[in-house]
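Hey team,

Filing this mostly as a record. A colleague (T.K.) asked me to run one chain through the structure pipeline before their review meeting, and I want the input and output archived in the tracker in case anyone asks later how it was produced. No errors, nothing strange. Just documentation.

Input sequence:
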Amino acid sequence: MYAHSKGINYFDTAPGYCNDKSEEIVGAAVRQLKRDTFYVSTKCGAADGGQVRASLEKSLKRLNVEKIDFFHVWGVLSLEGWGNRKAKGAVAAVRKAKEEGLVGHVVCSSHMPGKDIRVMLADELVEGVTLGYCAINFPYRDDAVTAAGEMNLGVVAMNPLGGGLIPQNAERFGFLKGPDDPSVVAGALRFCVSHPAVTSALVGFSSKEQIDEAVAAVAHFKPHTPARVAEIRQHILASFEGLCTGCEYCLPCPEDIRIPQMMDTFNQSLLSGRGEKIMRERLKWHWGTTNEEAARCTECGLCEDRCTQHLPIRERMKVIASLVEEKK
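Output structure:
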């Protein structure tokens, strides 16, 4: 309610968030709002069309709405997975629900590399995409954001603050703060939404103060000049010591290891200080894999020969491969 009072009108949820309670919580809140003053977004990760339809109907009830404004084909992790969503009816089910007036817009969310998201969008089956895009990983997703802009599709940037890593490492990311930015958070959000193809930044909140900070970041918003964007990008690419920026120059891997995804996982450990725990979580929930993918590394060294940042990729692969399951 407080976020809405501050002008925020896009609320994203999903079955499974907050121990399966997120949709009910959002539904209880939006029941108190005028329907034409907000947009609600939710998702389903099933491939089977029947399961998607059942999930959609449950979401409508939980959210207390007659139509879900943005319904996502949720968490597409590979082009093979996208083909599965098409073949088994998931995409068709959402498109049919739109024809029936139960869905406003058919969209998708993905963690794939930008070039693969471009291929998915080229099918012209969705009207928008939710993807991770921020100052940490922009090289990895630029192609997707650009493609969506070319197709006039909506782009919702999730994790515009790097999943909280940017504010938690404000000193390291201090270069994002420009003379008109009140904080590093403001600078990071401004960088994200300055891209002309980005429609909205999906910021997570845990307090009213965080809401106020995010709102202040875009109050009287003026996008960065192309020169300023280029300056920030160059700073990241040239001097982001020790962090993989997802440029993909390391590919292809002879063992088909998704090296940028593995290095992103290691980034999380470096920035958060949470070590093995966050790497396990990142592999499972963000990339849909396990440490066994890194264990396929034969240490051939081709990736390191190509890496523009000269990262110790083989050593990092060993660290990821050695992860063990957390004891319960």
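Quick notes for T.K.: The mean pLDDT is 91. Strands lie at 10-12, 39-44, 68-76, 103-110, 128-132, 154-158, 200-202.
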